[in-house]
Amino acid sequence: MIVETGHFALLLAFAVAAYQMLVPLYAAEMGDERLMRVAPTAAVVQFLLLAIAFAVLTRAYVTSDFSLENVWANSHSAKPLVYKISGVWGNHEGSMLLWVLILALFSAAVAVFGGSLPPGLKARVIAVQGSISFAFLAFIVLVSNPFWRLDPAPAEGKGLNPILQDPALAIHPPLLYAGYVGLSVAFSFAIAALIEGRVDAAWARWVRPWTLAAWMFLTVGIAMGSWWAYYELGWGGWWFWDPVENASFMPWLIATALLHSAIVVEKRNALKVWTILLAILAFSLSLVGTFLVRSGVLTSVHAFAVDPARGVFILLILCLFIGGALTLYAWRAPQLQAGGLFSPISRESALVVNNLLLTAAAAAVFIGTLYPLALEAINGNKISVGPPYFNFTFGILILPLLLLVPLGPMMSWKRADAWAAAQRLWVAALIALAGGILSLVIQIRGPWLAPLGIALGGWLIAGSLVELAGRIKLFSAPTAVSWSRLRGLPGQAIGMTLAHLGVGVMVLGIVAVTAWRQEVIKEMSPQEVLEIAGSKVIFVGESPLTGPNYSATVGRFRIERGKTVLTELKSEKRVFLPSRQPTTEVGIYPMWTGDLYVVMGDQAPDGKRTVRAYFNPLVNFIWFGAVIMFIGGAVSLFDRRYRIGAPTRAAASEPVPAAE
Amino acid sequence: MAMTRKQQRSAFIVTGLVILGAAAALVLTALRDTIVFFYTPSEVISKKVEPGTRFRLGGLVAKDSIERLQGAKVRFTVTDTDNTLTVTYAGTLPDLFREGQGVVTEGQLLRSGHFEADTVLAKHDENYMPKEVADALKKKGVWQEQSGVKQ
């Protein structure tokens, strides 16, 4: 009975989505303010209905109700509670339901927090959100319904893929979806603006926090996926340029570009047409990502059971929305009022270059990801495009961007003195140089590019700190003055500094682990020693272990440096019930200089164990950098100027004083 | 240095075209040099693949063919049910590597006629068959959507 309630709530939500799509749009067109007021209510009601449906499905998972086909196929009564819950979105149907639930949450958030929005714009934004909901709910209700029943109900479920039974992967999909779907708000704002034929500084101020929130979730979601791949897959790699990874990375690149171009719209009322295009592209790439991941058209190391037939439905939705949006854009964008002028050397121009490079990098990733698909359709040849392609194209395109990052914030709006800006960065250049030389001293071996990479990381970190120091007049004014200036800085400025600093930290990690990673493979009997990166890995022995829904062989390794015992690591080979699927758990010892990563492999014919050990220098900087970027986003998001009700059209038409 | 609106737009477009042109050139060079073809053992024979070429080999891991050699090396046979190719691989195999299941490896053909793999693609899901392998087997009529592989 409860299950039917959930199913019914889902169907009701579908109907509400249709209403939410049509009525506010009509009302806004007629200028009927009273009717427009139904939009927020519809959005909130839709969210509540979907929340009920989702809660019911979660309950079915928790109580192991195998009369639901979805629960039977993806759960097992012996699974720990937390993985019963995460199992709800560890499969196709459930994850699509989570997708629309988060979409509805964002719509409801616009409805609740968009109090200061002009009624027409608000109604249209909510209507466009409703149309996206409607399309995906049609997909769920018609071909991907998690509430379909089995009769008779089986006694036991088939279990969740054990590789998904992991804390990081339990929260990775919700975070990633919050990012993907959060970009829908920017998309809806863009479509609403095109319908209205009006884009101004206030518009950009409304769009930016939503994009920022989505970008934050994407950043941390991607980072978490990468971290999971690092410790769970047992290969020690953190990024594979796999289609599924690229699917999340492309929207991130465009969202990053959008964040920067929206600043230009907000401060200078320029780049409007371009910003609208980015807003459309960012969400379009989210849809492409959803399609790639959910349809299985591309071979991916991260592919889970996928269903190509359903892919066609998503492809249809994708064509409808992207095609429709771009058509509307081509028709209406030329009518938008042109904005402010700026000289070729200015903050605006710097941001244009940022945008072009990010977009070109995203395009290179896009082509590499989809080229195999296109080629196979054209001549039937099956090919794969791998890391060499992506490292080469993406690397070359992103390098100039990274070099220019510290320069951008030094430029003034409208017209800047490039030489003066560069002069202010001499300290940063010195620090970068010192960093490069230091890395040469510590680690002479390795590729000659590595010290340059370290210098680049140092340049980014020092550059952002120098910019901050300049703002608060550090060393040029009394400390008390600097302190009060720091406290008076807008959140946006600190957020930017942190985000750029995070990029620098991440670059350090990427360079170090790529250039100086060490790997040793050895067949070991107990008490044998493997030496790596100045440490000894001693194979202590192995013993059996029984977990809640698996049995395992635990290999124990003692890590010694000189005469001190650093720690004892465990690496497990697990076999999960009921599928008998094996997984490997790696042992990781994090140190300041990097991770010691030990994996117990298969047994050789003579009874020895194959053991692989890696030393991954500074690898944690990669995720640490992402966290700093996330915090930067959060600090910027809570900037008082973005507080609810702050941006009003009247206030925004006053000239905005250009920030330094 | 004030620009007119028209000049500004042209500057934007020109910069954009330059960057996009550079990106396109990069992409084309990289695509020419770095793509890897996918072959089944039969295609390796019919296309007369030269030793030393890098490609992906896919098919099923033949029954009873996995052999562990000295120095953490493994040898196994990849089959598409018509032809087979012997693969050697130094490294640890993915957890879901099994006899009778689909596999994709990347590496090069040796003069001896063996395939030396440096990568064995992992998969996350027991029921997942790499698309290329599924397609190749479907073409041969040994793959059925529901029951998996007929044997």
Give me the side-by-side strand order of the main sheet of chain B: 2-4-5-7-6
* Order of helical and strand elements of chain B: HEHEEEEEEHEE
Mean of pLDDT of chain A: 89
Rg calculated over all Cα atoms of chain B? 22 Å
How many strand segments of chain A? Answer: 10
Largest sheet of chain B: 5 strands, mixed, barrel
Distance between the termini of chain A: 62 Å
Strand content of chain A: 5-15%
Can you offer a commentary on this structure?
The complex is a heterodimer of chains A (660) and B (151). Chain A has 660 residues and is α+β, with helices and mostly antiparallel strands. In chain A, 62% of the residues lie in helices and 12% in strands. Chain A has 21 helices and 10 strands. In chain A, the strands form 2 sheets. Chain A has a 5-stranded antiparallel sheet, with no helix packed on it. In chain A, strands 2-10-9-8 form a 4-stranded antiparallel sheet. In chain A, a hairpin with a 3-residue loop joins strand 4 (535-546) and strand 5 (550-561). Chain B is an alpha+beta fold. Chain B has 2 domains: 1-35; 37-140, Nucleic acid-binding proteins (OB fold (Dihydrolipoamide Acetyltransferase, E2P)). Chain B has helices at 5-34, 41-46, 131-140; strands at residues 36-39, 54-61, 67-69, 73-79, 84-90, 102-109, 115-120, 143-144, 148-149. In chain B, a hairpin with a 5-residue loop joins strand 6 (102-109) and strand 7 (115-120). Chains A and B meet through helix 13, strand 1, helix 14, strand 2 and strand 7 of A and helix 1, strand 1 and helix 3 of B. Strand 1 of chain A pairs antiparallel with strand 1 (36-39) of chain B, so a sheet runs across the interface.
